[in-house]
Amino acid sequence: MATKRDRLTDTEIGAALASLPGWRRDGERIRRDFEFKDFVAALGFIAQVGALAERADHHPELTNVYNKVTIALSTHDAGGITAMDTALATEISARVPV
Amino acid sequence: MATKRDRLTDTEIGAALASLPGWRRDGERIRRDFEFKDFVAALGFIAQVGALAERADHHPELTNVYNKVTIALSTHDAGGITAMDTALATEISARVPV
Amino acid sequence: MATKRDRLTDTEIGAALASLPGWRRDGERIRRDFEFKDFVAALGFIAQVGALAERADHHPELTNVYNKVTIALSTHDAGGITAMDTALATEISARVPV
Amino acid sequence: MATKRDRLTDTEIGAALASLPGWRRDGERIRRDFEFKDFVAALGFIAQVGALAERADHHPELTNVYNKVTIALSTHDAGGITAMDTALATEISARVPV
Which of A89, B4, B38, C14 could form a disulfide with B83 if both were Cys (CB 3.0 to 4.6 A apart)? Predict the structure, then answer.
């Protein structure tokens, strides 16, 4: 039976990305670039991502330069992209100010 | 000459609060209650308030319970409310998601 | 059978506090005052407490004034102090710089 | 007259790095890798770095993967490394738990 820790197939990843605007596949990761009005807004986003990641016990690769944040998600143990990545991507996307 | 560290008069405080929706006077402080969609959103706000406060070298009294945050501002050295408080209140207000 | 969401007895609370230096009982809460070298250090602690709380899905009452942070823990649904509070208190205590 | 926004010479950079354990030169940046006990500790560090950066109005390039954080500092306007970078590096270093 498939679990959330199993690697998704290319078809499954494509289907998941269709519901994740801004996210793209980058090899064995999914990745999105975020841009905020300034550094302080980016920092508020990072704090939220951190709490969501700790709650999920699944942590992103995160890069920040001033008002820009890039998040990359992959499941190390599975050697690829799993439902844990797409679930966290969905939660993170909900934190972007509209 | 008035500086930003001088206590504001009651008239000046009233005028400042007129441009600060949600803020009210509470004795020698100004105070506002914020409510967010959940704890994570409140935490993102707190991180932003922290960076703004450190930048201004002026720090609020902050209380958080789950999705609620209360901020109180006062200028200890002046023994009351100054332009530093109303300026930081303005900056903090701009961080609330609409 | 006792669960982590059951109210602890006075005896159990006393026993738990014996292993939680700095924490004291305050009615139906446990509480500790923390002091850091400056506001930035307090903010780093708050960010950590936030992530731990979100992970535990159990959130403190938190107050911050400059380099001081007070944390109070209680389990609302149980109407008192439970093992969730003492567990989170233990985790929070481990985040204080020595 | 030299200002904190002037590019440092190679000699000046070498002298500054001698007092900044763990920092190394990487072309037109200075860089340090930090490792913490876990993600939560890394997050607490990031929150502190964010507040320090906002206070200095000078922001790092920051990367985080689980318990690891890398900070790179450069002064864009100067096209290289300035006293703003070495000053912020000193402040950031003081935030690492011993």
Answer: B4
Other CB atoms within a 10 A radius of the CB of residue D89 amount to: 23
Does the ipTM surpass 0.90? yes
**Contact residues, chain A, for D70 at CB < 8 Å:** none
CB atoms within 10 A of CB B10: 9
Average pLDDT, consecutive stretches of 10 residues, N- to C-terminus, chain B (98 residues): 88 97 97 98 98 98 98 96 98 93
Cβ neighbour number for residue B52 with a 10 Å cutoff = 22
Q: Do B52 and A40 touch (CB under 8 A)?
A: yes
Res. D2 pLDDT band, cuts 50 70 90: confident
Q: Does D25 touch chain C (CB under 8 A)?
A: no
Q: With beta carbons under 8 A apart, name residues in chain C contacting A50.
A: 47, 51
pLDDT in single tens digits along all 98 residues of chain A: 678 889 999 999 999 999 999 999 999 999 999 999 999 999 999 999 999 999 999 999 999 999 999 999 999 999 999 999 999 999 999 999 87
- Judged by a CB distance cut-off of 8 A, whether residue D46 touches chain A is yes
Residues 71-90 of C with CB under 8 A from D: none
Return the H-helix or E-strand segment holding A24.
strand A24-26
B32 in Cβ contact with B71 (< 8 Å): yes
Chain A interface mutation, best of C48, C49, C55, C88, highest count of A Cβ atoms under 10 Å:
C55
Q: In what order do the strands lie in the sheet with D24-26?
A: A24-26, A29-35, A68-73, A61-65, D61-65, D68-73, D29-35, D24-26
- List the alpha helices (DSSP H) in chain C: 10-18, 39-56, 83-93
Q: According to the model, what pLDDT value does residue C14 have?
A: 97
State the Cα–Cα distance between residues D70 and D30, nearest whole angstrom: 11
pTM: 0.97
- Is some CB atom of chain D closer than 8 A to the CB atom of B15? no
